[in-house]
Each structure stands twice: as C-alpha cells, then as structure tokens.
Amino acid sequence: MRETKADAHKKRSKISPLTNLALALTAVGAASILSLHYAEGLALIGLLLFMPLALVVTIIGLVNIRTSERKTMQLVLIIAALVVQVGLSAPLGYHVSSERILQRIGCGCDPKALGMALSAYANDHSGRYPNPQDWCDALAEHSGWQGKLFCKHPSAAVSQGLCHYALNPECEPGSPGDVVLIFETRGGWNQSGGPESLTAKDNYKRGWRVLLNNGHLKFIEPRGLAKLKWQVP
After folding, report:
1. Helix or strand or coil: residue 174?
2. Is 168:230 a contact under the CB 8 Å cutoff?
3. Are 162 and 131 in contact (CB under 8 A)?
4. DSSP H helix total and E strand total for the chain
5. Cα 29 from Cα 34, distance rounded (Å)
6. Is the dihedral of CA 89, 48, 35, 80 positive or negative?
7. CA-to-CA dists, residue 176 to 165, 215, 229, angstroms
8. Which one of 104, 174, 189, 220 has the fewest beta carbons within 10 angstroms of its own beta carbon?
9. Which H/E stretch holds residue 212?
10. Cβ distance 37 to 44 under 8 Å?
11. 184 beta partners
12. What is the C-alpha to C-alpha distance for residues 51 and 45, in angstroms, rounded to an integer?
C-alpha cells in the first residue's frame, strides 16, 4: 500500500515518547521550582527529583535522535527543555541552597506558629512580647518545645542557626494589625531588627515572608518593601 502525503507528513511530525517525557518532566519541575516561596517542600522535590530526571531523559532523547525527517523538530524541543532546566535550576541552587530549604522544612520555623507562640507569650506576660534580645529563648522556655517551633535546644540552635525569622522590636501586641511582627532572614538565633536587616547583603534575595501583627502572612518582593509598616505612627 502506497504511503499518502498526509501519512508521510504525520510520520515526519511525530514527536518521540522520550521527548514527550522530557518535556512533561521539565514542565512539572519548572512548576515545582516556581512555587518556592509558597511551597518550599514542593520546590525541593522539583529541584532534586523532577529536574534531574528531566535532564537524564533529555540527554537520552538527544542521543536517540536519528531519523532525519524528525531531527530538526526534536532538536528544537530538546534544546528548549535544556534551557528551561538549566535556567531554573541553576539560579535556585545559587540563591537558595537545597541544604537551607531542607533545614527550614525539618526545623519547622513556621511563621504563623511563631506568631501564635508570641501571642500566647503575651497573654501570659501582661500583654507584652518577649524581649527582642532573647525572644527565641523566651518562646522556647514558654512553649516547653512542645510546639516544635525550633529543631533543638537553644544551645544547639545558636551554632546551627535554626531560626530563620527575626522579630521587629517596634511591634507590640497592641500595635496596628498591619505592622510587621516577624520577618524572614538568614539562619540565626534571637535575631531582631527592621528593614535594614531585611535588605542586608547576606539576606538579600527575590523576596521574603513577613508575618504582620494581625497574623496575616505575606510574601514581599523587593519592590514592595516600601509599603511595609515597621513602627506605630
């Protein structure tokens, strides 16, 4: 039976299963990595699982491109997949190491949990938040570590930097709800400060999670810093 022009065109335009798999894995990995600021565990899976799998499948697909009729289309798709893989994985590995993500996931450091612990502390201490100089120690002692706010005893956390949030010393329980209470920062212990700490060179990145005094959690990009309220007027 003679092959028609339509059949020949369909055969030439067919994409191999390996290329389809590489594109699918790349898409899933990219979506996972882009969710970094909202779902760090998912971003870690994308970085350490989906992207390496996508890279392996992509390389295998590149090696197996042999049919001349499909070579151009296959190469274009494979190269596009490689660009996405490298373009997303490399910056993430540079700005936020997987070790830091694992540390933050394993240690909890949930800003909302910290906010609730601060409120509970204030209720038991005449409506006052802990002293900014030792607020992590105060929360650890007050909660009895049952809330799993931090990974280990403060003496271990000091050397390992297991709290990735700092307290705004200007915020009190009676402050307006839109005043910053705690904000994301580099690993440390009993950290406190204001916007100057948020934008410090060793803490600068694409954005930060900030918990307001009303318990509302926000993700702030650098361009949105000016809108944050740090002090009571």
Report:
1. coil
2. yes
3. no
4. 10, 4
5. 9
6. positive
7. 20, 11, 9
8. 174
9. strand 208-212
10. no
11. 165
12. 9
Q: What is the DSSP string of 99-132?
A: HHHHHHHHT---HHHHHHHHHHHHHTTTT-PPPG
Picking from 67, 66, 47, 65, the residue whose alpha carbon sits closest to that of residue 55 is 47
Write out the chain's pLDDT in tens, 233 residues: 454 555 544 444 466 787 788 888 888 888 877 766 556 667 777 777 778 888 888 888 777 765 544 567 777 777 787 787 777 766 665 455 444 544 444 455 678 888 988 999 999 999 999 999 999 889 888 876 544 566 554 455 444 457 888 999 999 999 999 999 999 887 778 899 988 887 665 555 677 889 999 999 998 888 888 889 998 76
Q: Please name the amino acid found at residue 148.
A: K
* Residue 91 Cα distances to 3, 51, 111, 161, angstroms: 49, 13, 25, 23
Strands 163-167 and 217-220: unpaired
CA angle 18, 93, 223 (to 5 degrees): 115
Contact 213, 129 (CB under 8 A): no
